[in-house]
Design a protein that fits this description.
The complex is a heterodimer. Chain A is mostly helical. Chain A has a single domain, classed as Up-down Bundle (Ferritin), CATH 1.20.1260. Chain A contains 11 helices and no strands. In chain A, helix 5 packs antiparallel against helix 9. Chain B is globular. By secondary structure, chain B is mostly helical. At the A-B interface, helix 2, helix 3, helix 6, helix 7 and helix 11 of A face helix 3, helix 4, helix 7, helix 12 and helix 13 of B. The complex binds fe (ii) ion (2 copies).
Chain lengths: 256, 321
Amino acid sequence: MTGFATMTDPAAAYVLRHGDDNLVLAQRLSEWVSLGPELEEDIALANVALDHLGVATHLLGHASQLVGGGTTDDDLAFQRTEREFTNVVLVEQPNGDFAHTMARQLFMDAYQRLLWEALAVSEDAILAGIAAKAHKESLYHFRHTSGWVVRLGDGTDESHTRMQAAVDNLWRYTGELFEMDDLDRQMVESGVGVDLGALSGPWLHAIAAVAADAMIALPDEVTQRGGGRRGFHTEHLGHLLSEMQWMQRTYPGLEW
Amino acid sequence: MTQTTAGETRFQTTIDADDKVEPRDWMPEGYRHTLIRQIAQHAHSEVIGMQPESNWITRAPSLKRKAILIAKIQDEAGHGLYLYSAAETLGVSREDLVDQLHTGRQKYSSIFNYPTLTWADMGTIGWLVDGAAIVNQIMLQQTSYGPYSRAMVRNCKEESFHQRQGYEIMLTLSRGSAEQRALAQDALDRWWWPSLMMFGPPDSESTHTEQSMEWKIKRMTNDDLRQKFVDMTIPQAEYLGLTVPDPDLVWNVEREHYDFGDIDWDEFWTVIKGHGPMNRERIQHKVGAWEDGEWVREAAIAHSEKAAARAADTIDARGAA
Ligand SMILES: [Fe+2]
Ligand SMILES: [Fe+2]
C-alpha cells in the first residue's frame, strides 16, 4: 500500500470517506452517459453525476490540504488502492438495470439530504461550505430519483417487478450508511462530524413514503453488508478503480 | 401552365430579403424535405457523437478533465434535443426521426464512425471535430429557416467552449512528455482527413448544394467551408508543434489560402455507406440502449395514465358528493 493508507489525520480521513462516496457514485452514474432510456434522462443522469463529481472534487481537495505535503485531489482519486478507498459499499454496486440505479440513488439521495444538512453546521468551515451547496443539490436529486422510483414501482407489471427486485437487492447495503465507528465518534465530539445513527429514523421515514407511493414493499430486517469505511469492499470496487485510474497508472506522474 | 401563388411569392420575397422562413409560413415541399433531412441528420450527429467521447469518461485522467468531458457530452445531448425540436416544427415527429436513424434510413456525420483509441482523441475531437462544427454552424446561423438558425446561434456558444477544451488538451499533451507528444501526433494523424471529410463531398459531386444555396439553407459550399476550416486550423497545429499528415499542404500566396492534398473520397463513401470502422457499433449501441430503455419508457406512460385516471376518479367522486 502507498503512504495514503495510514491517513493519520482524522479530519482528513473523515472528509475523504464522504469524498469517496461521491467520487465512486459519480463514476458509476457517468457510465450511463449515452445509454439512458431516453435523451432527457442521459442529460439528467449526467447532471447528477456532475454534481457528485463536483462535491467529490471539493472534498478530496479539502482532504488533500489537510494531508498536506503537496498532495492533490487527483493524487487521492487516482493513486490510492481499493483497500484505501473508504466509500460505503452501496455506491460501488454496479448500475444494473435502470431500477437498480434508481434504488441505489434513492438510498443515497435520502441519506445525503440529511447528511449535508447536518454537516452544513460543522465546526470545519470548509466542510460546512461544501455541505451547504451539496445539500441544495441533494434536494433536487431526491425529487428526480423519487419521481422515477414511483413511476417504475407504480408503472407496468414488469417495471414494478424490477423496482421491487432492485430495492430487495440493495437493501443490505443501506445499514452501513448509519454505522458509527471510532472516527465518527471522534468527529462528533469535536463538532466536525455527524451522529449518523440519528439520521437513520428520518431516512427510513423518507424512504417509506416514497415506497408507499411506488407500491414497493420494504424488506424486513436483512443481514447487512458494510465494511467499506475500513476498506473491506465488494469485489466491484477494484474493477471500477482499475478503469478510473488507468491513465494515471499507465503514465505515472504526468499532467493532463 | 404554372401559376405563382401568393404563398410562393411571399416565400421568394422572404428568401430574397434574407429574412427568416417561419414554421407557419408557406414553403415549397422540397424546401421542407431538404430541411427535415438536414436538421435530422444534424440532430442524429449530436446524439451519435456522444458515443466516441463517452468512451473516455470513466478513464479521464484527472477529476477536472472528467467533469469537463461529462459537461461537454451533456451539451451535445442538449443540442440533439434542441435540433429534434427544430425538425418537429416542420411537421415530423422525433420518434419517427429516431426510428429512421435506428433503421439506417437517415444518416449522421461520417466522423463519428471512427474509434477513440487514446485520451488524445478527446483533444482532437474537441479541437478538430467541434472546430469543423463551428465553421459549419456559423454559416448555418444565416440559414433561411428561422428555428434552425436560432438553434445554431445557441449551439455555437457551447461549441466554442468545446473547441477550446479540446485544444487545451492538445496543448497540454504537446507541451508534455515525449509519450504525450506521440499520443497527440498519432491522434492528429488519424483524425485529420476524416475531419476534412466532415464537410461532405466535393462541390462537383454534391447533389443538394445548388438548390440548398438558392433557398439559402446553405450559405457556403462544402469546398469553401473546408477551405475555411483548413486555413483556420493549420496555424493552430503549428502552434502545437504537430505535423499535419499532408505532404501537399502549402500556403498559396496568390490564393491566400492553403493548398492541400487530395481527400480519399473512396474512404468517405465507404463510411457513408455504412462500412466505416465503427458504423455497426454506433448503431448497435444506440439501438441497444433504446431497446433496454423500452420498459422504462413504458412504465412512465403507464404511470402517467394511472395518475390521470386517479385524478379523474377523484373529480367524479367530488362531483357525486
Ligand atoms: Fe454539438
Ligand atoms: Fe460540440
